[in-house]
């Protein structure tokens, strides 16, 4: 019987370039300054991996999955498929149920799309109680959710390529 240490999967290096990978970067502009910080964190990781990326801005979080679906299909039809999607945005709780509707539907639609299309997804859509919490998670010097979302998508691209033997 093998020990746990022998069966532990190898960690894929985050800094290794992913030659030829294409990433779709979608950002919700509803909270513009927070979005800018999320994007800056994501761009640093994408540039480190030397991937090609196409940025798209949408008005709010509910438009992110729709823009992703439209873009993924158009890219596939043009024989230029995306390897991954990085979704960035911020939903701050208010006094109504709108927060739950937006946050749950955005997350569910992104996950459904990623699974149906077999595309790597990094979900960096913040769902927070306050602007202060949003900044704690968005700042590159603190939570760096934009960077982590990009890293998650890149990790899944690496896994997909390793499984496909590329």
Taken together, the total number of domains comes to 1
Mean pLDDT: 93
Radius of gyration: 16 Å
CA-based shape: globular
Helicity level, as a percent range? 40-55%
* SSE ordering: HEHEHEHEHH
Strand arrangement, major sheet:
2-1-3-4
Oligomer: single chain
* Strand runs, count: 4
Our measurement of the CA-to-CA distance between the termini, rounded to an integer number of angstroms, reads 31 Å
Q: Describe the sheet with the most strands.
A: 4 strands, parallel
Number of helices: 6
For this structure, the CATH topology is Rossmann fold
- Strand percent estimate: 15-25%
What is the architecture at the second tier of CATH? Answer: 3-Layer(aba) Sandwich
CATH H-level name... which superfamily?
A: Lumazine/riboflavin synthase
Class from helix and strand fractions: alpha/beta
Low-confidence stretches: none
Quick overview of this protein structure:
With 166 residues, this protein is an alpha/beta fold.
Structure explained in plain terms:
By secondary structure, the protein is α/β, with parallel strands linked by helices. It has a single domain (22-164), classed as Rossmann fold, CATH 3.40.50. It is built from six helices and four strands, in the order αβαβαβαβαα. The chain has helices at 4-7, 32-48, 63-77, 98-117, 131-138, 145-164; strands spanning 22-28, 52-58, 84-92, 120-128. A four-stranded parallel beta sheet has the order 2-1-3-4, with helices on both faces. Strand 3, helix 4 (98-117) and strand 4 (120-128) form a beta-alpha-beta unit. The longest helix is centred in the middle third of the chain and has 20 residues, at 98-117.
């Amino acid at each position: 019987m093998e020990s746990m240490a022998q069966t532990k999967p190898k960690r894929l290096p985050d800094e290794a370039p992913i030659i030829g990978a294409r990433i779709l970067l979608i950002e919700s502009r509803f909270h513009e300054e927070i979005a800018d910080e999320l994007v800056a964190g994501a761009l640093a990781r994408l540039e480190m991996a030397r991937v090609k990326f196409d940025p798209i801005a949408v008005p709010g979080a509910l438009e992110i999955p729709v823009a992703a679906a439209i873009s993924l299909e158009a890219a596939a039809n043009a024989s230029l498929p995306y390897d991954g999607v990085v979704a960035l945005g911020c939903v701050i709780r208010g006094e109504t149920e709108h927060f739950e509707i937006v946050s749950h539907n955005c997350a569910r639609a992104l996950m459904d799309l990623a699974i149906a299309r077999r595309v790597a997804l990094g979900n960096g859509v913040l769902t927070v109680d306050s602007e202060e919490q949003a900044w704690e998670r968005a700042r590159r010097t603190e939570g760096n959710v934009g960077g982590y979302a990009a890293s998650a998508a890149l990790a899944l691209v690496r896994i997909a390529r390793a499984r496909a033997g590329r």
